[in-house]
Fold:
Amino acid sequence: MRVDKMISSVKIDTRKNIKRNAKKGELIINGEIEKDSSKKIDPLKDEIIYMGEVVEYFKDLYIMMNKPKGVISSTKDKEETVIDLLDPFYQKFNFNIAGRLDKDSTGLLILSTNGKLIHDIISPNKDIEKKYYVKLKDPIKDDYKEKFEQGIELSKDFVTKPSKIEKIDDKSCYVYITEGKFHQVKRMFEKLDNEVIELKRVRIGNLSLDPHLEEGEYKELTEDEIMNIIK
Ligand code: URA
Structure:
């Protein structure tokens, strides 16, 4: 890994500044001044000192959160975001969020500093299935199953991919979709003349929401969980 990438990944400085400061002798690798900020290093073995301070390298972070109602699934906003719920230690990292949830929705969110993984999870081409628990205003009708399987026309130029609905009782169900259009689940039920009154994501790919996580709580994922999300 390039030393400037390692330093900027832990948000100490921009690559441009690192390049300039390295030229001034502010970069030390294993005790030796290094003027080339593109130098390759092993971030877990080499000792890096930048601007007089040891740079601690963190591997990518992967977090599962049970998003509560009332916060925005975004990294920056005027209102409270899911990032504000994290411990200050985590707040210094540059997180990406896999598949936003509406402000009034709850459930599984994956946050990671690994942008490639997040991209793969939300990419429509990868067909990663998301499972939602849905509570409806009106009873589920018999034709919903077929409509979900056929695809529902949300706008003139967009029909949902085949999806599934699994009835729990008269007014609640699980929905399985592979896409993530804006307000998709709510809009699908609107088209069926119904209304979503509660929406919770319970699974993304092979990763289910940990039932021990209360709303607003989060945990780091284990290596196994990370490896299996999109397998
Ligand atoms: N679909 C919606 O309508 N809202 C969400 O938050 C997620 C999926």
Notes: The helical segments are 3-9, 15-23, 88-91, 115-122, 144-150, 184-191, 223-228. The longest strand covers residues 196-204.
